[in-house]
TrEMBL record:
It comes from Pieris brassicae. Residues 121-418 form the Peptidase M14 domain. The keyword Protease applies. Its cofactor is Zn(2+). This is Peptidase M14 domain-containing protein. Residues 1-17 form the signal peptide. GO terms for cellular component: extracellular space. The lineage of its organism: Eukaryota, Metazoa, Ecdysozoa, Arthropoda, Hexapoda. Gene3D superfamilies: Zn peptidases. SUPFAM superfamilies: Zn-dependent exopeptidases. Belongs to the peptidase M14 family. Pfam families: Peptidase_M14. GO terms for biological process: proteolysis.
Length: 423
C-alpha cells in the first residue's frame, strides 16, 4: 500500500517532503523593542515581523522557529531581555504534513492537464511556465513571454509583458510586479498569475490594459521554489553554490542582493544566515534578470511591487536608515489607495493593511529590490506583504482565491492612481 501511495503522488506531478527535519521544532511569537528584534534576524528563522499590538512605539512582534537544540538558549535570552514570548505550535513537522495532505488532495481533485489554472492550489515550476507559454499562444496580440535567463541550476526564468500596443507606445506607464523571490512564500505566484489572468483572459477592467503596460515575474526564484516544494518546505533563499561556505550553506537571500547599501549590515554577511546577502551585489542570476528588465524599461516604469508573504503591509523606502525619499508623502498616499481597496474585500477576521516606511514599521534592511528600484528612478516602489491569517506563509489552499481577488483590487487601484499622476 505504501508503494502505491508513493506512485500516486508521483503521478500528481509534485512531491512534497523533507518535513522530518522539523520534527519537534516549535513556533513562538516574540515581542520586544525593534532594535533588539532586528539583532536576532541573522541567527533565528523569522517567519514574520509585524508592529506589536502595543501602545508603545518601536515594538515588534515576530513569529519565529526554534529547533529543540536552540530552544533553551533562546528562551533564556528572551527572558533575560524581558521579551515576551508565547508558544504557537510545538511541532512544525505536523503542520507541514497537514499542509501536504491538503495540497495532494487538491491536486488529485482538480488536475486537468489542459494548462489551466485554478485558485485553490499551488503549482510547480514547470506547470507555471507551461501555463505562461499557453497564454502566449492563445493571446499573442497582448501577451509575450520573455525567457529572461537561466537560474543557477539552469531553470528558465520567464516573465510576461502585457500590452495592447506591443510595448511600442512610449507614453504608456509600465507597472512591474515580481513574486516568489523568497522560495517558501508560495502564495505570491498565484497573485501574479491571477493578475495575468485578469489582464489577459478574464478582462473585466479593459482600461488597465489599454492605458498601462505590464511586466510580471510570477516566479523569480525557480530553484528555491522547487526545492521548497520537493525537499524543504521552509527554504527561503536561492540555491547557488558560488560563494565561500556554500557547501555547508548554499543560497542567497534574493531580497538582500540588490545594489542599494549592499554590504552595510553585518547581519546579512553570514552565508549560513537566512538573510545572507551574497558574495557581491547582483551575484545571483535571479536578481540580475529583474535588474535587466527594470533597466530596459526604466524610463516608463512608474510602479514597482515585489510580492512577499506575510504581514498585510505596503512598505516603502528607505529601509537602510528610515529616512524618506523626496516623494515620501506620495508613496504613503499611493500605498493607502492600494491598502484601502484591499481592505474593502478582506475577510472580517483579517488585519487591515499597514502602509509606511519599512525601517520605521519594522527594522533596517539593506540590498532590497524595493530600495534599489526607487534609487534608480522608479517613483513608486513597494514591498507587498500578503495576508497569512493564522497560518503565516503556510496559507491553506482554500484562502488562495480570497487573497488573489482582494490583492488584484489593490494592484488595480495602485495602477490607476499612478496612471492618473502621469497621464
Amino acid at each position: 500500500m505504501a508503494s502505491l501511495a508513493i506512485c500516486f503522488l508521483l503521478l500528481l506531478g509534485t512531491v512534497y517532503g523533507g518535513h522530518e527535519k522539523y520534527e519537534g521544532h516549535h513556533l513562538y511569537r516574540v515581542a520586544g523593542p525593534s532594535d533588539e528584534i532586528a539583532q536576532l534576524e541573522a541567527h533565528i528563522d523569522f517567519l514574520s515581523s509585524t508592529p506589536a499590538a502595543s501602545s508603545k512605539s518601536g515594538q515588534l512582534e515576530v513569529l519565529l522557529r526554534l529547533s529543540p537544540e536552540e530552544r533553551v538558549k533562546w528562551l533564556n535570552y528572551f527572558t533575560e531581555k524581558n521579551m515576551h514570548y508565547t508558544l504557537v505550535a510545538d511541532n512544525l513537522a505536523n503542520i507541514l504534513r497537514d499542509e501536504e495532505t491538503q495540497l495532494n488532495r487538491n491536486k488529485a481533485r482538480s488536475r486537468s492537464g489542459n494548462n489551466s489554472m485554478s485558485w485553490d492550489q499551488y503549482y510547480g515550476y514547470q506547470e507555471i511556465n507551461d501555463y505562461l507559454d499557453s497564454l502566449a499562444e492563445k493571446y499573442p496580440d497582448v501577451l509575450t513571454v520573455i525567457n529572461s535567463g537561466l537560474s543557477y541550476e539552469g531553470k528558465q526564468i520567464k516573465y510576461v509583458r502585457i500590452s495592447t500596443s506591443r510595448f511600442e507606445q512610449l507614453h504608456k506607464p509600465v507597472v512591474f510586479i515580481d513574486a516568489a523571490v523568497h522560495a517558501r512564500e508560495w502564495v505570491t505566484p498565484p497573485v501574479a498569475l491571477y493578475l495575468i489572468h485578469k489582464l489577459v483572459v478574464n478582462v473585466t477592467d479593459p482600461d488597465l490594459v489599454e492605458k498601462i503596460d505590464w511586466i510580471i515575474f510570477p516566479m523569480a526564484n525557480p530553484d528555491g521554489y522547487e526545492y521548497s516544494m520537493k525537499e524543504d518546505r521552509m527554504w527561503r533563499k536561492t540555491r547557488s553554490r558560488a560563494h565561500e561556505g556554500s557547501d555547508e550553506c548554499p543560497g542567497v537571500d534574493g531580497n538582500r542582493n540588490f545594489d542599494h547599501y549592499f554590504g552595510t549590515r553585518n547581519a546579512s554577511s553570514d552565508p549560513c544566515s537566512i538573510i545572507y546577502e551574497g558574495p557581491s551585489m547582483f551575484s545571483e542570476p535571479e536578481t540580475r534578470v529583474i535588474r535587466d528588465a527594470v533597466l530596459t524599461h526604466l524610463d516608463r516604469i512608474r510602479l514597482y511591487i515585489s510580492a512577499h508573504s506575510f504581514g498585510n503591509m505596503f512598505l516603502y523606502a528607505w529601509g537602510n536608515n528610515g529616512t524618506l525619499p523626496s516623494n515620501g508623502l506620495m508613496l504613503q498616499v499611493t500605498g493607502v489607495q492600494m491598502a484601502q481597496a484591499i481592505d474593502k474585500l478582506k475577510l472580517p477576521t483579517a488585519q487591515s493593511y499597514i502602509v509606511g516606511n519599512s525601517a520605521q514599521i519594522l527594522y533596517y534592511t539593506s540590498g532590497t529590490s524595493r530600495d534599489w528600484t526607487r534609487a534608480v528612478g522608479i517613483p513608486f516602489t513597494y514591498t507587498l506583504e500578503l495576508p497569512g491569517y493564522d497560518y503565516g506563509f503556510l496559507v491553506p489552499p482554500k484562502y488562495i482565491e480570497q487573497i488573489v481577488t482582494e490583492t488584484y483590487a489593490g494592484l488595480a487601484a495602485g495602477a490607476r492612481y499612478v496612471h492618473s499622476l502621469y497621464n
